[in-house]
Design brief:
This protein has about 150 residues and is mostly beta strands. The protein has one domain (about 5-145). It has no helices and 19 strands. The strands form four sheets. Strands 1-2-3-7-9-12-15 form a seven-stranded mixed beta sheet, with no helix packed on it.
Amino acid sequence: MKIASFFAGLIVSSAVLWAPVNAMTSDNTNEFDGGSGLKVKIAADYTTIDDDIFEGILPESTNLTLRGEGLYRLTQDQTIGSLSGNGYVNLRNFTLTVGGNNLSTTYSGVISGTGRIVKRGTGNFTLIGRNTFTGGITVLEGSVNGSPTR
């Protein structure tokens, strides 16, 4: 049986965190430590996921950091300001657009799925993980360095 709880716009159920579209705004500040390693912080436009799973929609300005076993699993096409860290992204069959905040970031985690990455903004996006996604990368602005797939 799954027991869900509601915490300031975030729903936690069986170590999976879902964020309803209307609950995630740039004005929202949420910190949650659910024990057993679940640590998620959403403050203004910065989101960090440590050692757990996040499934949902983030504001387009979000600077997303994934650490450890942190997993961001897309549920639809998603645009975020930046991606950094060493966790996991599962694109499924969706498109993840990154770089709108014009920052240069490095992502050393794994990106998987059949979806694709779109890079926009003036910053540099460096990929150095063992990525397996098959949809490719489209660079609209800025640059992508490293090894997008291995």
